[in-house]
Amino acid sequence: MLDPTITISDELLLQVLAQSKDATAIYDSENLNIRFANDAMLSLWGKNRSVVGKTIEEAIPEIKDQSFIGLLKNVWHTGKTYTAIDTPASLIINGLLTTSYFDFEYRAITDASGNTYCLLHTAADVTQRFKDQEEITERSAKEQQLIEELAAGNEELTALNEEYLSTNEELSIISAENRKALEQLAMAKQAAGIGVFDLDVVNDCLVWDERCKQLFGVSAQKEVTYTSDFVEGLHPDDRELTLKAVANAYNKALTAGRYNVKYRTVGTDDKQIRWVHAVGQVHFNEQDKPQRFIGTVMDITTEVDARLKLEQSESQLQDANEELFAINEEQSSINEELRATNEELADTQTELLLANIKLLESQTRLRDVLEQAPIGMCVLRGPEHVIEIANNAILNIWGRTRAEVMDKPHRNARPELEGQPVFDWIDNVYRTGKRQVNQEFKVMLRNGDGLREAIVNSIYEPLRDSEGNINGVLIVLEDITAAVKERREAAHIQEMFNLAIEAGELGAFYYDPTSNLFKGNETLKRWFGLGKDEYLDLQLAIEVIADEDRSRVAEAITFALDTASGGNYDVEYTILNPQTNTTRIVKAKGKTQFDTYGLAMSLNGMLLDITERKKDEQRKNDFIAMVSHELKTPLTSIKGFTQMLQSKAVKREDDFSLKALDKTNIQINKMTTLINGFLNVSRLESGKIHINSQVFDMAELVKETEEESTAIISSHNVVFAPVVKTMVNADRDKIGQVINNFISNAVKYSPGGSTIYITCVISNGMALISVKDEGMGIAAKDIDRLFERYYRVESKSMGTISGFGIGLYLCSEIIQRHNGNIGVESVLGEGSTFWFTLPVCPA
Ligand code: ADP
Q1: pTM for this one?
Q2: Pocket probe mutation, ligand 1, options 676, 681, 748, max atoms within 8 Å of Cβ
Q3: 803, 789 contact by CB (below 8 A)
Q4: d(CA 499, CA 110)
Q5: Which CATH superfamily is domain 694-839 in?
Q6: Is 477 helix (H, G, I), strand (E, B) or coil?
Q7: What is the pLDDT of residues 737-792, one digit of tens each?
Q8: Going by CA atoms, what residue is nearest to atom 9 of ligand 1?
Q9: Which of the chain's ends, N or C, has fewer CB atoms near its CB within 10 Å?
Q10: What CATH class has 131-367?
């Protein structure tokens, strides 16, 4: 008994419980929190230790719909212990819902005032016991059923017995009636020579009729027994078979008691052999045990003899036949073998032949491949590396003739390699079987009588025989000297180019339309205010461009990326460096590269800082404007004085003075036009040129021009084509100025006496005015630049013709301000057609 003074701590108690083999759990709250569960309980639940601390409902959710939780709560509240046996519970064990049987007890542990503070749950898995018991119950039920069935069987048997008795009686009556019939049967039996046997199996008592005894060669008076007469009377060769037939007949399940057998007997007295055919039927008791065996035997000796003889002769015949057949067979198989051997031989020969051909072919093919390969190839054989095959390409690289190297050890054939690593490499490949690959290595090769430095790529590949033994080395050699030199040169050029670009303060750019990224040299990045490693996408690049230039640059890029532009990019614009806040005017020139489908791959080009040039130009313009302006006043007074002198000369009829003053006047007019031109340019540049639009008929303007030209121009034939009414909305004076400029250029740049044609037609909703001459024409390279300010063609034929290159520039600016187009078609030496278009006014 436990000493009441010894207090056991809760933990110790739990430890003790943990050791217990009985499944034990403690719940310490009303909602059945698992305070403790020992291993036995956990394994019974099919859970691990993580369930401790959870409520039983959380820990074993599968028991929610089973009665246990309710029972436990009831015990908690009532304090009454609940015990149950053989109770099924379904728990998830190893992932499967398993029903087991338990004896268990829920016991409330209460404090002094009778309040429950925990529940002790003990349980034992009694599934096996339960199942055993169930089996026992089941078995005893079965036994009971059997007993009942037996009792019923007994009753049936008694009833059956009674039936037998009455049947027996009936049978004896039938026997009497049938005796006569049986006698008749006996007589028939005798006539057919049939013997009858009747064996009382249980008492081993055999009865043979007279005929049966005859067939076994025993005297009619002899009392026969199964063993001494039947078994002994059987021919030794047939005994086993016959007794087997008897045994089979005794097996009701096998034969249903039927017996049918042919055997020989050896007469006990006369030793005569007889063939008999016995047929019988075994009668069984209820336990299927043989009781009686009755049957007949019939002499079949004559038939059997006859059949045997037949069979014998047949078999003899058969034997003879078989022998013959066998001989034939042998013969044909020998033949077959011979044929097969022949075929095999033929096959082998063909195969050999084919193999030879293939070998030859593959050798020739290898040779062919090697010979024709554009890359240097050779085959070295054996440890001496004898040169077996060497193609022309390799001979060229080696600087050797075929005769110099063929069938010679490589070392001897190419002494120039002495002291270089090649020989060792080949030895090494031959020895180790490991291929060697060399990229871009420098080697001194024979060149005429001397040596040359070559750069080559090479592969040394071991060659093996059919057994896998190394028997040679294949060398693949490529002379890349030129390519490497070219590459180095290209790199050098690139380097020089970069240096030049840097030195020339040029911005170089590369634009990839696919990625939309600009790459540029350092100068360009600096101008755009970018760090060294920063990329510039198109958007960013455009943003850095001055507002007034931005859309123009974007258009120029789009235009250059279109195949129609021929890929040309040429634009001037101002960059506002976001880093330094400085402005820079640049001239960008580039070219787009297109792929075969006409898609832009890249736009590459240069940027030239033209800020200074622009400033110079500005200064020049300012100066010209100022000078022109200053010249205008004295020129006007010169013109005035000249006119005065002219009128005085007229009065004095001073012809000489008149002529001189006329010439002076012409020069003054020229000068006025020139100065006006300069003034116009400067006005244009400073945005001071104004377009005074009005709707007028081009036909009339052309008519006026025609009148003026016919009056002034006598050196050329000026031909005006008739013009239909063509209304336009434009600055009449300035358009007239453009036509006059075209005509005066045509006069200026074509020989006297040639014809100038002027037309004005409507084409695609535009008035198209063109001036065609038969003059010097313009080279293609100049055409694009003709409308630039101050641009003049530089050629011998231009030598004496004066001008400043501002006329066409002004024309172009005027036409552009009218939303028209201007251009020229020209063939050098044949003439030019200058044209411009203006939108036609709706009538
Ligand atoms: P300028 O005639 O004063 O040089 P323009 O601007 O009128 O200036 O013409 C620019 C250049 O275009 C000329 O210098 C000349 O080389 C070329 N040009 C103009 N018209 C013709 C023409 N009809 N035939 C050949 N060349 C021409």
Answers
A1: 0.38
A2: 748
A3: no
A4: 101
A5: Histidine kinase-like ATPase, C-terminal domain (3.30.565.10)
A6: strand
A7: 999 999 999 999 999 999 999 999 999 999 999 999 999 999 999 998 999 988 88
A8: 805
A9: N
A10: alpha beta
